[in-house]
Write a structure and sequence with these properties.
The complex is a heterotrimer.
Chain A (H helix, E strand, L loop, with lengths): L2 H33 L5 H10 L3 H7 L5 H9 L8 H14 L6 H17 L9 H22 L4 H29 L1 H6 L2 H13 L3 H7 L6 H10 L7 H19 L4 H14 L3 H7 L1 H22 L5
Helix pairs in contact in A: 1-2, 1-4, 1-5, 1-7, 1-8, 1-10, 5-6, 6-7, 8-10, 8-12, 8-13, 8-16, 13-14, 14-16
Chain B lengths: L18 H8 L3 H18 L2 E3 L8 E3 L2 E8 L1 H25 L4 H4 L5 H5 L21 E10 L2 E8 L6 H14 L1 H6 L8 H10 L12 E4 L8 H11 L2 E3 L4 E4 L2 E6 L2 E4 L2 E4 L3 H4 L15 H6 L4 E3 L10 H4 L2 H9 L6 E2 L3 E2 L3 H9 L4 E5 L9 E2 L5 H13 L4 E5 L5 E6 L2 E10 L1 E5 L2 E4 L4 E4 L15 E7 L3
Parallel strand pairs in B: 3-23, 5-13, 6-7, 6-11, 11-12
Antiparallel strand pairs in B: 1-2, 4-5, 4-20, 8-9, 9-10, 14-17, 15-16, 15-17, 18-19, 19-22, 20-21, 22-23
Chain C lengths: L1 E16 L2 E5 L9 E11 L1 E8 L5 E7 L3 E14 L5 E3 L21 H9 L5 H15 L1 E2 L10 H7 L1 E2 L1 H14 L4 E8 L6 E2 L3 E8 L3 E5 L11 E7 L2 H4 L2 E5 L5 E11 L2
Parallel strand pairs in C: 8-9
Antiparallel strand pairs in C: 1-6, 1-16, 2-5, 2-15, 3-6, 4-5, 7-13, 10-12, 10-14, 11-16, 12-13
The chains are: A mainly alpha, B alpha+beta, C alpha+beta.
Amino acid sequence: MLGKTAGGLFWMARLLERAENTARMIETGQRIALTRAGSGADDWLSVLQAAAVAYGYQQKHEEVLPELAIDWMLRDPDNPSSVMAVVTQARHNARLVRTALTHEAWEAVNSFWMLLKVALARKVATRDLPKVLSLIRERNALVRGSILGTMLRNEIYDFIRIGTFIERADNTARILDVKYYVLLPSAAAVGSRLDNVQWDTILRSVSGEGGYRLAIGPDVTPMGIAQFLILDKRMPRSLNFCCAKLRDNLNYLATDYDLRMPCHQLADTLCRRFMSHDVAAIFDYGLHEYVQEVLGHLSKLSHQIEIEYRFNG
Amino acid sequence: MDMFDEMQGQNGQIRSPYATFDAWLSDEDAARLRAKSREAEDLFRLTGITFNVYGRSEAEERLIPFDIIPRIISAREWQRLERGIEQRVCAINAFLHDIYHRQEILRAGRLPQEMISSNEAFLPQMIGMMPPGGVYTHITGIDLVRTGPDDFFVLEDNARTPSGVSYMLENRETMLRMFPELFSRNRVRPVSDYPRNLRRSLAASAPVACEGTPTVAVLTPGIFNSAYYEHAFLADKMGVELVEGHDLRIVDGRVAMRTTRGYRPIDVLYRRVDDDFLDPLNFNPDSALGVPGIMDIYRAGGITIANAPGTGISDDKAIYSYMPEIVEFYTGERPILQNVPTWRCNEKESLDYVLAHLSELVVKEVHGSGGYGMLIGPAASKKELKDFERKLRARPGNYIAQPTLSLSTVPVFTKAGLAPRHVDLRPYVLMSPEGINVTPGGLTRVAMKKGSLVVNSSQGGGTKDTWVLED
Amino acid sequence: MRLAISHITRYSYSTPVPYGVQQIKLYPKPTRGQAVINWSITVEGATQEAEFTDHHRNHVMLFSFDQGVTELVIHSQGVVEMADQAGIVGPHEGLAPLWLFQRATEHTRAGKGCRDILRSVEGDSDLERLHDLSARIHAAIVYETGKSEIAWSAEDALAAGHGVCQDHAHVFLACARAMGLPARYVSGYLRMDGQDEQSATHAWAEAHVEGLGWVGFDVSNAISPDTRYVRVATGLDYTEAAPIAGHRYGVAGENMDVTLRVTQQQ
C-alpha cells in the first residue's frame, strides 16, 4: 500500500472520530445549559477547551456566548476544526484513498458529507440542534458500520483503526485534562452540588453515564470516574481500551509486514507504563501530570507511525 | 437541414436497432421514468461521479447529466466502425514512430515539414526513442459523429489522455441497476471488461527491466484535477495503485512508489498528467505534478509511460486534416472512416474561403480541446463573428474550419417527453504489443440544450449509455 | 594533440538534502577529430540510476542523491586525442532533423537586439556572414564574468552589453536561426594557451552550412574551435547542453566549486 494511502486512511478515521467527539461536546454543553440556570461562559469555555478549539474562538470573539460557541464548533469557516471542516477533510482523505475503500464505505462517507453540507448550510437554530447532532452521530455510525461490515481485515483496516483510537484516546485524555481539577480529592471534599454537575458533564462527554452505572455503580465519585475513563477495559472510550486497541492493530501490521519498528515499542510502553497502575497510584502521581504525559506519548506515537509507515515521505 | 434521428430515422419510422427498446418504452409510464431519472442522478451523486470545473473550488463538484434513453448501434454498423477505428489507430501509432525516427512521411512529401517543425506538440526528447513494444498510443479515444444511416465521420483523435471512459462504465452499471429488464430483451455487448483489458494491455507493454508480473500504476495530477474521479475509478477497477508525483522517486534505476514497506518499482505508468508536467528535470521545471528524471529512466528502458510522451503531435487538429493521407501512407489502404472536410487557415485560399463563409462554419483552435475557444458560425452573433474574424486574421495558422455538420440526434428524456438532441460517440481503443482492442460502443455525449451542437461536458453536455447489439 | 582533463565539481548544501536527482552530460561526444582515449565519471554522494544517449546523441547519466548528503562531488576525467579540423565538425548525423536546429527557444528568441545586429552583417556566403556575425556579437557583448545570470536570454545579454560564453553562444544561435540556418549550442572544455588551470567549462556555437556541415564558432574568443576545444554536449541552447542539471527537494542552499585542469600531454 502507498504510504500516502495509509496516511489518508489514518486521517480519515481520525477526523471522523473528531467530528463525533465535537458533536458530543456540544451536546454536553447544551445539556448543562438546559439543566442549570445561570450556566454560561465558564461551562462553554471548558467545552471549547475540551474540544481543543477554545484558542481560535477567543481570537475571533471576545465573549463566550452559547450560540457563538455552538456555531464555532459546528460550522464557522474560520475554525479549521469545526465539524463541517473536519468532515470535509475526512471526505477529502476518503477521496484520496478511494481505491482502498469499499464502495459502501466510500458512499457512507460521501453521503455523510453531502447531508452535513445541507444541514449546516446556515446557522443551526436551537430547536434544530438535537436533529443536527444526531445526524452527525448516526452518519458516523453508518460509516463505522460499513467499514466494519465490508472491509477486509488487512493493513487498510488496521490503519483506519489506528487513526480512530489515537484520536479517541487523545479526546478522552483532553477531557480529563480540562476537568482534572474537579476530580481532585481536595475538590471532592467540598462536596458541593456544582461538582456533581461537573462530574456528570465529564461522563456525558464520553457517552459514559449509563456505562458508568453498569460498570461502577450508582455512586458517582472522582475516583470512580477516573477509574472508568482511564483504566476500565470495558469502556470503549477509556484510555486503557484505546491504547490496547492501538497496540493490537499496530501488532497486526508488524506481523503482516514481519517488521517491528520503534512505534510498536512506543505503543507497548504506553500500555505498560500508563495502564498497569491502579487509580490511587495515578492520583498519588498527580492526575494532571499523568494526563499530560499520556497526551505527549500519544502525539509522539502518532508522529512515529507517520514516519515509519511513510505517510509523507 | 435534414436531421437524422438514430431512433426515428428520417421518416418517423423507428429504426430497427431501436425496435425492441421502443416497444418497451411505449409500455412505460412517464411518471416512473421520471422517478428513475431522478434516481439515476442520486446514484451518480452518491457514488461521487463528479468532475471539477476548471478554475472553481472543490466545493463545486459537478455532475455530468445522464440521460436514461440509450443510444443503440447495430452489429453491422459497429463492425464497420470497429474496422475503421483499428485502421486509424494503427496508422496513428505508425505515424508517431515514423515522426520520431526517420520521418519518411516528410521525406516522401506526403506531409508538409512545417506541420511537424512548427508544431509545439512535437517532443524532441522522443527522437530515436523506441517505446517498449513499439506502442505509443496505449489508449486512444476516437471522436465520431454521424450525419446519416451510413455516414460516420471522425471529428477528432484523442491520443494524449482521452478521458470519459469511467462514464461509459458507470452509465452501463446504472442502466443495469435501473432497467434490468431491458437487458434481457436486448442482447447488448458488455463493456465491463474494459478495466481488465486495460490492465492486461498495459501489463503487456512492460519494459525489459520488468521482472515477474508487471506492476501497473495510475499517475494522477491529484484530487483537484477535473478527472480525479476517473483516475481513482480506473485504478480501483484495475486493482492498481493511484499515485501522484510526490509518491514517486528514482530508486535502483527504476521509478518507484513510496509504500508503507518502502519503495517498490513501477513497470507501467498509466499517466493522466500532460507531457509538459511529467518531468520537472526535463520539461517544465515548475511542475510539482511530475517525477524528476522519469524521462531518463524511460529512455534507459526502466519504465513504460502510457501514453508515450509526444503523442500529442498526432491529435493536433492541423495534423488531423492530413489523417486520410497518413492512413494511406502507413496502411496502404483507403481510410475506412472519413474525415470531416477541413480548411487549414494557414493556407491563403482556405483562409479566404473561411472568412467569406464564417457564419456557416465551425472554427476550432488547432491545439485547443474541450470545446474551448471554438466558434460555431450558425449560432454566433454578429459581434462574435467580427471578433473571431479579427482573431483569425491575426493568427490564421492557429485555426482550422469545418462545415457545420448536421449531427445525428438521439432522443433524450425531458419533462415534456422525448426530444431529439445531437450526439457524438467516443469509442475507446487499447493497443499493446499483443494487439488492438476496441470496446464495443464507447461514450455517447449529448448536447442537452435543444439544437445545440456542443456536447462537451465542460460546456454542459451530458452522456448516455451506448449499446452495441449482438448479431 | 593529447589533452588530459580533470574536472571536479563540488556542490555543498547548507542543510542535508532529503532527495534529488542530478543529470550529467560530461562524456566527450564522438566527434570527427576528437577521440576519447580513456574517460571516467565518478560521483560521491549520489547513486547512478540511468545511462542513455539522448536525441542530440549526448551521453547522459542520471544520479539520485544519497539521502541526507550535504556534499556531492562529480569527478570527470580522462584523455582525449585531438586533431585539427579547422573548426569543421562535418555532416549532420543522427535522427534529429536539421530543421529542429532552426527552432527558437526561450533563450534564443531573436528580438530587436538580434535584428539590429543582423542588419549590419555582411558577407558573400553563409560562412562569411557567420564569421562576421560572430565578430559583431563579440564586439557588442563584452566578456565579463560574475555579472550575468544563468537564466538570461540572448536579448537580455544584448541589452546588458556584457556576458559570458553562454550569452555569446545564445546570441549567435538566435541570429543564425533568424538567418534561416540550423544552429546549436556546444558545451565543452577549452585549454587556454599556456595555462593548465581553467576557471570554468566553456561554451560555443555551431551552425550548419551547406556543403561543409556543422561549423564551430567561439564568439567569446573570436575564433573557430581548434584542437584545444573538446566537445562534450550539444543542444538547442544551454538548457539542453548543460553539463550538469539537477532537481532537488528541500530548502537547502547550494554552493558550487569547480576545479578544472586541461593539460597538454604531447
